[in-house]
Amino acid sequence: MADAGMLIFLSLFMLVGSFVAGSVPLIMTLSEERLNLVSIFGAGLLIGAALTVIIPEGIQMIYSQQFEDLKLKYEQSKATSPGHVGDHDHDNEGLHSVIGIALVLGFVFMLIVDYIGSSKTNRDPESGTSRSQRSCTATLGLVVHAAVDGIALGAAATTSQTATEMIVFFAIMLHKAPASFGLVTFLLHDGVDRARIRRYLFFFSIAAPVAAIITFFGLSQESKETLSSVNWTGLAMLFSAGTFLYVATVHVLPEILMRSGGGGGHSHLPSDATGTVKAGFTRCGLLLFVIGAIVPMALTALHHH
Questions:
Q1: Is the pLDDT of residue 181 over 70?
Q2: What's the rounded Cα separation, in Å, for the pair 22 and 15?
Q3: Which ranges does the record mark as transmembrane (predicted)?
Q4: What is the Cα–Cα distance from 186 to 180, expressed in whole angstroms?
Q5: Whose CA is closest to 68, among 227, 223, 231, 221?
Q6: Is residue 103 in some structural domain?
Q7: pTM of the model
Q8: Residue ranges making up the domain that contains 105
Q9: Per-residue b/e over 20-56, b at no fewer than 16 CB within 10 Å?
């Protein structure tokens, strides 16, 4: 029961923290140019969180459990046959492909979801539908990502290992705040009204807590014993990283690049022979993107310290 109480507390904290972080751009009054710069910073946060927080944490969880298993096998082999300790390097080789498969599955999953949504849009074309579809797909991708995060947290809670649960929780929080901030700035820049943005933000914020609680209470005792290995938690985080990367690179970043290069009407931006402004970052935008990408890494370093 103590495990359930801790999980509920962490889930509530996650819900409130994510919603508050995403509400910051909503309470700020920004001009179009400043909103564009904040959006670029948010896109950097999304990319940085995926590359420097989610993927490394997922890989660390998988390998930490594998190293524990190898150590146990090594001690057993020493006890049974001291002169002939087996080589267990081949046990690590399979993990390389498993990590890649988990990432690709998450990316492909969101690609399929995006394709299904796009096909429905093409059958019912309306003015502004593509922009609305882009916003909905980006939101759906991050909601799915948040739900998978919740599954990882719920699975970690079933192991009754407080250290593992807290590692997963901190890893999730380190990228949920940047993700919620980046999502809201993207939606604001995409012209979505604030009431709808708050609904999207609420769905994103509540997805992980609900998934965590359902996972914890929905698993049978046999399933909890199976998930006592951290491997499944790490794989769930890597799958969510794949969905995260799809949203950040296919939807958010290209839109930010296009708006930054061609939407602001800056005369100093590079142009082609016809005078059309090319897509790309300004110097200030590039600097903000780099800073946004570095912030999650800095937070991770402080967390590990």
A1: yes
A2: 11
A3: 6-28, 35-55, 95-117, 138-160, 166-188, 200-220, 232-253, 284-302
A4: 10
A5: 231
A6: yes
A7: 0.67
A8: 2-75+96-121+128-264+277-304
A9: ebbbebeeeeeeeeebbbbbbbbbbbbbbbbbbbbbe
